[in-house]
Amino acid sequence: MTTLIKPNLEQELIPLSELEVHSEAMIQVSDLEDDERAVLASMGLHQDDIFRLCRQGSPCIIQVEATRLGLSQEVTSRIMVRRCVDCNPL
């Protein structure tokens, strides 16, 4: 039997646009319109997903499991995340 362990997350929410490259984080909330959320969900990005930040800027590149997504800086500034403390060598 496999036991899932919840990652240790920092309590502070920060915009995705301020996350450090190579950090892992979890999406907590976003100030996105419903159609924007639907587009991200269709690409495989949902609230509470853990992802790795590959590149900041425009586009911002994140990796969710084996999939990489490019997001505009305008969108990343409206997505709030929590850093995954157990996953980051910070």
Short description:
This protein is of the alpha+beta class and 90 residues long. It contains 2 helices and 6 strands.
CATH class: Mainly Beta
- Which stretches are low in confidence, meaning pLDDT under 50 for 5 or more residues running? none
| Helix content range | 10-25%
CATH architecture: Roll
Which structural class fits the helix and strand makeup? alpha+beta
Number of helical regions: 2
**What is the fold-level CATH name, i.e. the topology?**
SH3 type barrels
**Total beta-strand segments:** 6
What is the N-to-C order of secondary-structure elements (H for helix, E for strand)? Answer: EEHEEEHE
Shape assignment = globular
Total tally of structural domains: 1
- Within CATH, the superfamily carries the name Ferrous iron transport protein A (FeoA)
How is the biggest beta sheet arranged? 6 strands, antiparallel
Task: Please explain how this structure is put together.
The structure is a single chain. With 90 residues, this protein is an alpha+beta fold. The protein has one domain (14-87): SH3 type barrels. The chain is 14% helix and 33% strand. It has helices at residues 34-42, 73-76, and strands spanning 14-15, 24-30, 50-55, 60-64, 67-71, 79-83. The protein is globular and about 30 Å long. The chain starts with 13 loop residues before the first strand and ends in a 7-residue tail after the last strand. 17% of the residues are buried. The model has no long low-confidence stretch (mean pLDDT 85).
